[in-house]
Amino acid sequence: MGSMLELKDVTLFIDRGGEVQPLLADVTASFPRGHFAAIIGPSGCGKSTLLKVIAGIAHGEEEGGLYWEGRDLMGGSDFAASEIGYVPQFSIAHDELTVSESVGYAIRLRVGGATSGNVRAGTAQALKEVGLSEFADRRVAVLSGGQKRRLSLAMEVVSRPVILLADEVTSGLDPQAEDEISHVLHDLSNDGERVVLSVTHSLQHLELYDSVLVLTGGVLAYHGPPDALAHYFRCEDPRDLYARLETRQPEEWAKSWKKHHAAFRGMITGRIPSEPKSIHFESDGGPLETEQEREQESGAGTVASEPPSVSSEAVRAPGALSQFLTLTARKLRIFSRDKTQLLLQAGLILGFPVLVAIFAWNGLPAVQNLSMDMNQGLLQQMKENATFLVQGSKIGSLVSGIVMFQVILLTLMGANNSGREIASERLIFEKEKLSGLRPGAYVASKAVFLALLVLAQSAWMGFFVHVVCGFPGPLEAQLLFLILVNAAMTSVCLAISSLMRTAEQASLVSIYLVGFQLPLSGAVLALPEWAGVLTRPFIAAYWSWSGILQTLHDERYYDIVQMVIQTALSPSALCLWVLVCHIFAGLVVTLVGCQRTRMI
Ligand SMILES: Nc1ncnc2c1ncn2[C@@H]1O[C@H](COP(=O)(O)OP(=O)(O)O)[C@@H](O)[C@H]1O
Ligand SMILES: [Mg+2]
Predict the structure, then answer these.
(1) Which residue from 104, 365, 446, 499 has the least number of CB within 10 angstroms?
(2) Residues with CB under 6 A from ligand 1
(3) What is the pTM of this model?
(4) Domains and CATH numbers, the chain
């Protein structure tokens, strides 16, 4: 029988501290189209691992074979991302969106060439399939656990996957919700085309499944009809299964199953849509008493000929540009809905420039052009000279300080813009990548969104300080360096966010990076020559500070600033290019970080 998902001696080795161990060993099973199977077994027995192997996202050394209608999935066949739906244990939707928006974006990101009409119809259809129609306008944040699982399912079925893998979507729910989701999963396999595999802890409602696969210690202990399960394991009630499994070593269960599996082969069948499954198992003895094997010819599967809702042709993912536009629109919508984030940004954008301006609220003191009149007495001259020095050094420090203060606050905003951006949604992003999202489109959408933030923050900072403090020099050139330093920090912290495991780690590293800007810039205290040479290339604040002070070249302030600063300024063009390099390097590393697969 060609139409099926086949696992042949599937084995997965992992390297645990130098020791290679199998997480799964010799799992052999097949599932025809229109089949609904439960994968059960004690905690840590390898259920999630098995789903990940089938989804093609397991980490480790794989052996054995995995076939869909003869296509070799392990050997890198041309199986499209849309053909496998994988519902992980975590929520894959953004809290700020509504149910129908989440499904709508899932369609736009996964289904190529979808028109607005397609999206609307597809959303309605998916919500109907999982029983969420009446909650279409509800925010994800306020959904119940069960509703969230349904939403995850709805977001997976939009690309009409032929294999749907669900990892503990019923766990942690109340019995009624668990019951409802089991029925939803059952119905999703009911069109006769799709294989649905559901990992579950629950031994309730086993009768809903066409087959039950029991794993223990990474090995297969049983794969057969649910109503033969209790008999096979010789327990009164299927619910005693876990206790029963503990009575023997996994290897013994595996050996036992190898002896008896042939008798069950014919019983793994598909279903005619909406018709109850048929079970042909007759109990006799069981594996512990009889070694008798009953060969049954396979082929008992009944595959539907009804028009399938699963298309026989795989859905194509949209192009990178389309995904980029969808992600950018989604990001803007999520941002506009997050009241805390909006308030925080408004506070930073409006408040930080005021903080700078406080230091020069009445405008910068004018530089007195003290005359060095030769006709005056020497003492008078020296007095004026001394006054000039004192006054000059105060003004010079103020100008340099105001520049550095603006720059540091903008690096802080930069770190705040992007430090958590990718790390905090990494699991969702990995999931979306699995469903065909291109990392390039994702990074580009982040870049555009962050660029808008950076522009607002830097432009207002520069403009406000220029007007309120009467900061001298050309505004446009100074704005350029303010924008560049903010963009450089935002870009570098985005890279950090793409490399770190958790959002907490990423924001910690980002904040440290900001903390080092001021001391290592050399604007306050000079560094030893060698230390300056080593660190300066990485300190964006120095290049922006230096670039802005260079714009004062034609002002009277320039000479007194030169007089007080401890560290030499660099040419404007060099400052500009170093900052551009920071931005560019940050984006490249972000792309690399996003292409790397993180554990799901
Ligand atoms: N990448 C990995 N590296 C090391 N150990 C792993 C890895 N993935 C899973 N494990 C371990 O493998 C076993 C099976 O894990 P899993 O498939 O998640 O079990 P479960 O049946 O509870 O879903 C567990 O003991 C788990 O700790
Ligand atoms: Mg698991």
Answers:
(1) 365
(2) 14, 16, 23, 41, 43-49, 59
(3) 0.86
(4) 4-91+162-267 (3.40.50.300), 324-368+397-595 (no CATH)
